[in-house]
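quick one: nicotinamide-adenine-dinucleotide bound model?
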Amino acid sequence: MRELRIGLIGTGFMGRAHALAFRHVSAVFELPVTLRLAALADADPQRASQCARAWGFQTAHSDWQRLIDDPAVNVVAITTPNHLHFPMAMAALAAGKAVYCEKPLTVTLEEAEQMNQAAKAAGVVTRVGYNYQHNPMIEWARQMISSGELGQIISFDGEFSEDFMADAASPWAWRCEPQHGGGALGDLGSHLLAMARHLVGDVQAVCADSQTVHRQRPAVAGSKET
Ligand SMILES: NC(=O)c1ccc[n+]([C@@H]2O[C@H](COP(=O)([O-])OP(=O)(O)OC[C@H]3O[C@@H](n4cnc5c(N)ncnc54)[C@H](O)[C@@H]3O)[C@@H](O)[C@H]2O)c1
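yep, here:
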C-alpha cells in the first residue's frame, strides 16, 4: 500500500487540527494508503519538539526548509500565517512533494498564479484547506444544483460568523496585518467565496464594504502596550 509520509509545518490552531486528522483519519475511513506522521516543523524549536512528541511525529524541525528536504516526507501540509504559504509551497513543489496548503492560498493574486503554474509543472497532488466544501451536506447541495433539481439558481446568500477577535482585549496577531495576509476578507471571506464558487460558479464582480472596529490591540495578552 502506498505510504503518505506527512510533514506538517505549524503547530498553532490549525496545525493541531491537521495533526489530529492525519493521526485519526484511518480509524474513521477505509483508506487506500497508509499514513505516517514523519516530521513536524515550527519556528519555535521547543514547541516543535514538544508537539512532535505529543502528537506522534517522528522528527521535529525548527527550519521548515529542512522538513521539505527531509527524504522521509512526501506530503507537505502548511498551516502557517498566510504570507508564508507561498515560499513554503513553492519549495515543496520544487522538491516534487504533494502539498496541502491552508487557505487563503497566498497574499497576492500574482503569487497564487505562480503557485498554480508550479503545481501543474510539478504534477503532484495539491489541495487548499477549504475543508467546509467536503461537508456531506454541501456535496448534497452541489448535486441538487448540478442535476437541475433546484432549477435556475438566481442568488447565493452566505454568512461566515466568527467572534474570536470581537473582544478588544484580544491581543494583536499576524491576522491583523495586511502584509501577513491578515484581514477578515482573506481569513473568513475566502471560505465564503470558495463556497460560492464551489456551489454556483465564478464571481464576476465584487462590491465590498468593511469596517475595522478595534483599531488598537494589546501587543500581547494583558499588555498595556498597544
Ligand atoms: N481551514 C480552516 O478552517 C482554517 C481555520 C483556521 C486557520 N486556517 C488557516 O491556517 C493557517 C494558520 O492559522 P492558525 O490559526 O493555525 O494560526 P496560528 O497563529 O495559531 O499558528 C501559526 C503557526 O505557524 C507557526 N509559524 C510561524 N512562522 C513560522 C515559520 N517561519 N516556520 C514554521 N512555523 C512557523 C507558528 O509558530 C504557529 O505554530 C492560516 O493560513 C489560516 O488562514 C484555516
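Residues 9-15, 41-44, 64, 79-82, 84, 102-103, 129, 131, 187 surround nicotinamide-adenine-dinucleotide (CB under 6 Å).
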